[in-house]
C-alpha cells in the first residue's frame, strides 16, 4: 500500500476555487481502480490549511492516477490557489 499526505496552504481569496477543484478530485479519484481512500481534511486550528489523504493499493495504481485528466488539470492549476506550492509526502508500509 502507498499512502500520500498532501499539504495545502490556501490563499483566503482562492479558497472557493480550491475547494471546487479538490471536491472534483475527491469524487473522480475515489472511482479509480486501486484507490481505497481519497479524502480532503481541514486543519482544526488553521482554516486555510488542508491535507489530502490518499491510499493506493500499489505504486502502479498511483502512477495510473497521475496520468488521468482530472489529476493533470489539478496539477496544472492548484498551486495558483496556494500561498506556496503543495507539499506531498509518500509513505509505504513497514512489514511486521
Describe the structure.
- This protein is an alpha+beta fold and about 100 residues long.
- It is built from 3 helices and 4 strands; from the N terminus they run βαββααβ.
- The chain has helices spanning about 15-30, 60-65, 70-75; strands at about 1-10, 35-45, 45-55, 85-90.
- A 4-stranded antiparallel β-sheet has the order 2-3-1-4.
- β2 and β3 (about 45-55) form a beta hairpin.
- The longest helix is centred in the N-terminal third of the chain and has 15 residues, at about 15-30.
- The two termini are about 15 Å apart.
- The mean pLDDT is about 95.
Task: Give me some keywords for this one.
96 residues; single chain; alpha+beta; 4-stranded antiparallel sheet
Morphology = globular
User: How many E strands?
Assistant: 4
Distance between the termini: 14 Å
Question: Main β-sheet: number of strands, strand sense, barrel status?
Answer: 4 strands, antiparallel
Number of helical elements? 3
Low-confidence stretches: none
Beta-strand portion reads: 35-45%
**Would you list the SSEs in sequence order as H and E?**
EHEEHHE
Question: Averaged pLDDT, please?
Answer: 97
Oligomer: single chain
Radius of gyration (CA) equals 13 Å
Helix content: 25-40%
Give the neighbour order of strands across the main sheet: 2-3-1-4
Structural class: alpha+beta
